[in-house]
Amino acid sequence: MNIIEKLENNERLSYEEAISLYDLDLFTLASYANKIREDKHGKKTYFNINRHINPTNICKDVCQFCAYSSSRKNPNPYAMTHNQILDIVDNSTKNGIKEVHIVSAHNPDTGLEWYLDVFRKIKDKFPDIHVKALTAAEVHFLAKEYNLSYEDIITRMIDSGIDSMPGGGAEIFDEKVRRRICGGKVTSQQWLEIHKLWHQRGHQSNATMLFGHVETREHRIDHMIRLRELQDQTNGFNAFIPLVYQKENNFLRVKDFLTGQEILKTMAISRIVLDNIPHLKAYWVTSTIKLALLAQEFGANDLDGTIERESIQSAAGAASANGMPMNNFVDLIKNSGFKPIERDSVYNELKTW
Ligand code: V47
Q1: Closest listed residue to residue 279, CA positions, set 267, 288, 271
Q2: Domain extents for the chain?
Q3: What topology is assigned to 3-352 in CATH?
Q4: Tens digit of pLDDT for each residue in 86-140?
């Protein structure tokens, strides 16, 4: 059976077949990815009103792509206090946020209890706010620092009120590329193992893929297939989030930025390959808002959220430092022909705008 027949019949694609999708033209890919989107979600595009908080940029690890860590080209180390974090959440609730997304660098001085305590305080004061926190990279870092198992850390995360895990730290699973771009931090197998354990405890998470640096198309497909295999076992991933690499202020020497075509092809291919992950998020921060809106025609059905403050990708050149006002978000989705649906962090629909 050729690839078009398989696409017509909605059949699962092998690794080799998935790679050959890149040989199809953009419009063919768009039509198949869009059909999957429409079958799953119609014209709905989800977003949430959220606040990103990055409590510290002091990091023990040295990822070559990172411009956020203070040990790299950005020598302004900081660590927030609990009160600063609580004040941010307090202010943001006035803007209607439903979620705080809290991820940090790997700072040995802000220890395990420091984190757990701030999550408990947020939950005590703001019980209705969803706490999405700690990437698998942070879980691994904390487990190593405190000589604890992943299970132990996960139990403490749940006890301190974390509701879901973000998808960060996945980067690219291929071991050779990973060694080059972020050797020393959580391995691919460990990243997958941590999400598996989290899912087995009945909780949900997301999965990212950082692309557009030194990886090949084959590495992207390998990354997607490893996620698809885990999702077959656990069904715990909500969304897949392809993150477009931003090239400023870091130590990975990449000269060429991905073309819009390659970004959209990769979006469409991920919609087709990841047949078991319900949502595809076009993260406007890294793709630009214009391409994220276009990605709605290429399988994406989620645009993440208003964010308010963005520190990780904006340090590397993205125009996202101040988030996106809610009204802009809604208007842009509507004007592009889709239906803006405000969601909570686990995709319950809150409001049709
Ligand atoms: O894992 C770091 C990425 C991620 C750069 O789960 C970079 O809903 C581009 O994971 N260029 C953290 N990306 C952000 C993240 C995320 C974002 C939004 C939503 C969710 C979710 C998760 O940021 C890291 C890393 O892959 N990153 N540096 C860079 N130069």
Answers
A1: 271
A2: 3-352
A3: TIM Barrel (3.20.20)
A4: 999 999 999 899 999 999 999 988 889 999 999 999 999 999 999 999 999 999 9
Q: Which of 135, 312, 324 to mutate to test the pocket of ligand 1 (most atoms within 8 A of CB)?
A: 312
Regions of the chain short of the pLDDT cut 70: 1, 72-74
Cα–chain-centroid distance for residue 292?
14
Q: Is residue 99 within 8 Å of 47, Cβ to Cβ? A: no
- CA 239 to each of CA 161, 163, 302: distance values in angstroms, whole numbers, following the listed order: 21, 15, 9
Give burial (CB, 10 Å; 0-12/13-18/19+) of 218: middle
Beta carbons of 113 and 148 less than 8 angstroms apart: no
Q: What's the order of all strands across the beta sheet hosting 130-133?
A: 50-53, 99-102, 130-133
152 burial via Cβ count (<10 Å: 0-12, 13-18, 19+): middle
Q: Whose CA is nearest to atom 21 of ligand 1?
A: 166
**Of ligand 1's atoms, which has the minimum distance to the CA of residue 317?**
30
Interval between CA 2 and ligand 1 midpoint (Å): 36
- Report CA dihedral (315, 320, 321, 324) to the nearest 10 degrees: -170
**pTM above the 0.90 mark?**
yes
